[in-house]
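Hey all, sorry for the wall of text incoming. These are the two entities for the joint prediction.
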Amino acid sequence: MQTRFDVVAIGHAIVDVLAHVDDAFLTAHGIAKGAMTLIDAFRAETLEHAMSNALEASGGSAANTAVGVASFGGRAAFIGKVRDDRLGRVFGDEIRKSGVVFESAPAKSGLATASSHILVTPDGQRSMNTFLGCASALDAGDMAEKTIAATEILYVEGYLWDTPGAKAAIRSAIAHAKAAKRQVAFTLSDPFCVGRWRDEFKSLLASDVDILFANEAEIKALFETEHFDQAFQAVRDWSGKAALTRSAHGSVVVNASHVHILEAEPVAKVEDTTGAGDQYAAGFLYGVARGLPLGNCGRLGGIAAAEVISHLGPRPLVSLKALASKAGFG
Amino acid sequence: MQTRFDVVAIGHAIVDVLAHVDDAFLTAHGIAKGAMTLIDAFRAETLEHAMSNALEASGGSAANTAVGVASFGGRAAFIGKVRDDRLGRVFGDEIRKSGVVFESAPAKSGLATASSHILVTPDGQRSMNTFLGCASALDAGDMAEKTIAATEILYVEGYLWDTPGAKAAIRSAIAHAKAAKRQVAFTLSDPFCVGRWRDEFKSLLASDVDILFANEAEIKALFETEHFDQAFQAVRDWSGKAALTRSAHGSVVVNASHVHILEAEPVAKVEDTTGAGDQYAAGFLYGVARGLPLGNCGRLGGIAAAEVISHLGPRPLVSLKALASKAGFG
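and here's what came out:
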């Protein structure tokens, strides 16, 4: 059957509020550097008041990835929950303008659309403080069976495990994908997220995941080791496709028979690492959906990540398709 | 048969003359940064006059490795040529004091003992200007058959190819090792050296080498690619044991069935990268000679490299055996 989409991404629909701050700001507000911390509505308001010159931009890890796939010229869809409020409309308008099909109906009651207060320090690191709001209302009813069945790869973010109803939703989405013989991709999302859900993530890997994304901290957290190599050996034993991202050290991509050790693409100045992993996933998934060799999938990931860290904001500012073509692809 | 040595290293016997200089010094003297350049006696004298506060210390790539093996508690021997002059005595005294057996007879006539004028810039890079002198008189007659036959691993430096008589000498040494069913290890030494001898190095790999050492620039030069991953794939196709060192990115070690991706050991401050590859080779070879798993051989290499780059000079200042034991080995 001809598919309708290359990738359907499921995740939290979030609008990011970004600002440059110094390390002292993090210390003063008790914020863990480089991590994603869940906050409530009250703390979200406190942070919003403290942040000056903040930039508002649609985000959400899996949503960013869907936008990246579309920027490569891929056919992308996103499933996630917004409310019928101002931020919800911002999110919907922006993701559709990026070429991503977003058909989830906005909620008419309940909590507001999710927002993440992202603090970028001079070293390019970002610390995220996320108020999940309405995004956490995602449930099995939102898992559009027809869309999932008609898509090459179902992509699920680990962050969803922090949402009470999401487990049933994901189980349902994976069942739809498996029934249609589609591939299931999963990102570990965050080392603290791995800490909260390690055993569930491991059993998900063993039973359902075909493609895994993790950065160095996440894969070490999953296998409880301080040595990247030990985590890498565990990934090889698992034998699915995996992309392990390593910041300035590039990435390592593996499947049952191959290992590729890829250098980071050159970046003149790292401005903001927000979305680096999301865009890497976009390039890799686009490559897999189009049947490219494993090493080239990783290179597309690196190209997309390099673009997004060269400016503030979690989504590409230029066409990834054009960048890929400049690098000799397609 | 019980062996007498873990490693016998063959290379140029050189005394290093090290000094800290700025980039302007390199420019003024037309010196290629980070490379090893061969110079004649006249230029050696010119540089010596221009260098102030120079430190004299025995060096030579393979000799440094032999000293590193001994520092791990391994049984090491060195074969190389000095003259019966002051520097020749310095070289012989220092290597023997390090616990390395050095039985090559000093030449009684001809060129002086080799010296390398090493300029260390503030970024920790070193640029080497080597006057080979007497070291280039090495010939087949120096290849002590009994020593080689009684040693687990014969280790040969690529630099030797710059010495006219050395090819016959190496052929003879390898023949002794193969006849005794010993392993042959080889380092590419320097990207410019690879450029000079690419085809010969490739045929040596195909026919005689069991263990290969190369840094990123060298392995890319060998396989004429700008992508580390392409060089890595070529190394995997070759299917011997290889250790590819990547400076701050750590190292990758492979054999026919395994790949290990190792992080660099932490170093408080990189003082001088002179000898990093030599000491990495020492740790790796010691591990192989003692039958350690491949990944652990690489970790020992990383531990030794981290020690030597933390201070000026190409040989360890503290016991590598003690450092290995602190890291949980032996």
